[in-house]
Amino acid sequence: MKSKFQLFFSDLYILCLFFLLIASQTAIGQSKTNVQIEFNKLNGAYHSGHLPALQYFVKADSVIHQLFSEGKHFEVRELVDILSLYEEIAWSKTEYQRARISYYFLFFNNARMFKKKGASMYYAEKITAEYKKYGEEHPLVEQLQKCKIYQEQRLYSKVIDLFNGEKKYLETLPRLLQQNRVDESVGLNALYILSPTLMGYAKGNDTTAVHQTARLARQIGTAIQRKHLVTRSQLLYTDLLMIDIEHSVANFDGRYNDAKNLLNQMEALKVTYKDQATNFIDINLIRLRIENYLNLQKSDSLRSYISKYETSPNFGKSQSADLAEFKAKLQALQGNYQEAYTYLAIALEHERDLQASLMTESSDLLYAYTQAEHSAIALQRAEKIKQQRTFWLVFISAASSILILVIYLIMVYRSRKARKQIEALNNAANMEIIAMEEAKHQAVREEQKRLGQDLHDGLSSSIAAIRHQLESLSMDTNDILLKKRLDALQVETENAYKVARNKSHEWFSDAGRLPEQSFEKQIKLLTDRSLPDSRYNKTIHIDDNSLVNVGTDRRITLLRIIQEAITNIIKHAKAKNVAILIYEEENNLILTINDDGVGLGENKPGNGNGKSTMGLRSIRQRVQSLDGEIKIHSDSKGTEITISIPSVSS
Q1: Which of 190, 361, 381, 595 has CA atoms 20 to 30 A from the CA of 13?
Q2: Entry pTM
Q3: Greatest CA separation found in the chain?
Q4: Residue 177 φ/ψ, nearest 5 degrees
Q5: CA–CA distance, 318 with 457 (Å, rounded to integer)
Q6: Which residues of 487-587 form beta strands (DSSP E)?
Q7: How far apart are CA 1 and CA 157, in angstroms?
Q8: Which among 297, 314, 233, 220 is positioned nearest to 260, based on CA atoms?
């Protein structure tokens, strides 16, 4: 559905077209200063936010249209400057496509109004291009302007040739309008083409073609009138064109009284459409009345309307030849042939001046088209060179992109390979560090046990012997003072004995607990590096005394089993929680590793497909090397690995 904004611009340019087609113009004019002041107000209102874009377009078009109706003509540069903000807004958003069409229509009507045929054809092409962007493939604007030019030059054969070139499309318009497949403005443009076409057939006395053309015009006009979105102004212009065409047919058939009645109907439109601007109807009506009274041979009425025509504010030099011709016919009608001859001579002189002007305009138009054609050829050549350059640019860009991609992939491959090598080295180094830590802690444990044993067997025994000797001496002496001193030494010796014995027991016991504390630390070190706290929740627990009888080699093997299990969790499990538990049960060391991941799936042991992962195979081999057993339970809720090995020191 078209917006009010769209309909307004359709109506506005139709009004200008009708006015320009049927009206006489004279450059009355309003100063440039006043025009600029008016647009400064509009521009200020838009910039201040008081005038939305759509309303700005409507008001700006209205101002220019009013100036056109008053006979104001703009130089192209002047109109470009005045409409600079209009152009900026219209091309700022795609939703203002219709305003772009209206923008070029203002230049188009300005050129048509003052006989700039080359410029008018240029802007007609611009309008057509914008219409096609808008979705209207065949707006008929260029064809309409060509018909106008041919009509002014009385080249009705050219008008008919143009009509025949568009005839098939024009005959489809009634159906296209009924189906809402074309804009109402296209139908009105078609009526403006059919009007001079009908006159061309009338000049050639082709009765059949005249009535066929009129019938097609009626069908198009009726289709426009029946459309739901047609506004009052569009109905006015449609009714006016329909009456004008019927008037031409009546004159062709010699039904002059019917023609007079049709002119009365045309005048009555001012009452029917009093809510619309209808002053432009009077401009053409005077001339049509003159022609009608000539046909009816009513000299008094003819004289009155010739006087109105001559004193009309829109009368200009271009109408001088017509005025002289009308006066000549009036004199001939009254039998004053000498006066008629004089006026005919004057009319002929004015006609020659007009012909000379038309020849100049035709030369300008021909020059403009030749220049445009030459420019088009040059543009085609430049475009061809541009396309070739673009092709090579695209080819080189594509080749460069492929080369960069290949280099990037090679770098990624090398980076991954290097990262894997570094990870392998880091893992090996980590395990070597862990092994060294275990060996160190084992040495500390052995040394601590040895020191505890030496303290218990050596120093404690010596202190016990000294204590026994002091006790014997105290019993053998009768000296009371010496006896007290020996008893005091005996008490001190007893205390030293207890301290030495307790310390030896403490060192011996701590040496038994140290491996568990060291092993748990190494496991945490291993998991902290592989399973960051930001992604995994970890639970690690080792029972006291569970690793007392497990040697260094077995501990390192257990660490490697845990490392393989963690690697599998990282690669496949997609788990969030990981738990590692070590405890002793019936002289067996039990290791359990579980996660809440997705499970082993097809890699689940015992499914018969032989697709267990390399990590699980490695774990099995390591468990077998410790003479142990392994059980794996896995489902969609996670995986649990339970390993049992004899807790015999090695």
Answers
A1: 361
A2: 0.51
A3: 192
A4: -70, -40
A5: 142
A6: 537-542, 577-585
A7: 39
A8: 297
